[in-house]
Amino acid sequence: MPLGAFLIVHFMINYQAVQGPEAYNQATHFMEQLPFLLVMEFVLIYIPILFHGIYGLYIAFQAKNNTSTYSYFRNWMFRLQRITGVITIIFVAWHVWDTRIQKAFGAEVNYDMMADIVASPIALVLYIISIIAASFHFGNGLWSFAVTWGITVSPRSQQLMTYVAMAIFVIMSYIGIRAILAFV
After folding, report:
1. CA-CA distance, 73 to 51, in Å (whole number)?
2. CATH number of the domain that 26 lies in?
């Protein structure tokens, strides 16, 4: 749950770039001024990401994908969940290096930093792919969560949750891509 909430907040803050550099810098400055920020980052972001990422990699590489034999929708969602998880964890490591670690070395996390990062067409394309992967992983992960925790038990409720999950994927992808393109 903390990771999903963080992803939504992170996309919303980044979306401020659509309003221009001042709006983005103001939003990031507000976040950097939160009390106990480092504690919150470790407890709500870094530790959950490490756990989810390491455990997720274990699951992804232990998975028995059977889409070649049974090409059902849910089998493809299972496979795509693992693929997007691997893409996302690699991206998160890169993104943390480019932003949070650089901040620890004295760089300022602001609009110009992100504009410099995505000034490279390769970096921009990788960001867009990663935003789509993270958005899918989040939306489809909510579907899996709802099924696993017995929230959506009936076939009808699972079908409705599929629509909700895919809507979340599309909306989050739009917000994330719109935000990253604002730095170009």
Report:
1. 28
2. 1.20.1300.10
Say how many C-beta atoms besides its own lie within 10 A of residue 101's C-beta: 12
pTM of the predicted model, to two decimals? 0.93
Q: What is the pLDDT of residues 55-91, one digit of tens each?
A: 999 999 998 888 888 889 999 999 999 999 999 999 9
Question: CA–CA separation, 47 vs 156, rounded Å?
Answer: 35
Four-point Cα dihedral 90, 91, 92, 96, nearest 10: 110
pLDDT digits (tens, 9 = 90+) for 33-46: 889 988 998 998 99
Instruction: Count how many Cα atoms sit within 13 Å of the Cα of residue 102 in the half-sphere of its side chain.
Output: 14
Number of structural domains, the chain?
1
- The CA-atom distances, in angstroms, between 39 and each of 20, 36, 45, 153 are 30, 5, 10, 37
Q: Using the Cα atoms of residue 163, residue 168, residue 169 and residue 173 in order, give the sign of their dihedral.
A: positive
Q: What residue numbers bound the domain in which 149 lies?
A: 2-181
Contact 96, 109 (CB under 8 A): no
CB contact at 8 A, 67 and 76: yes
Amino acid at 149: W
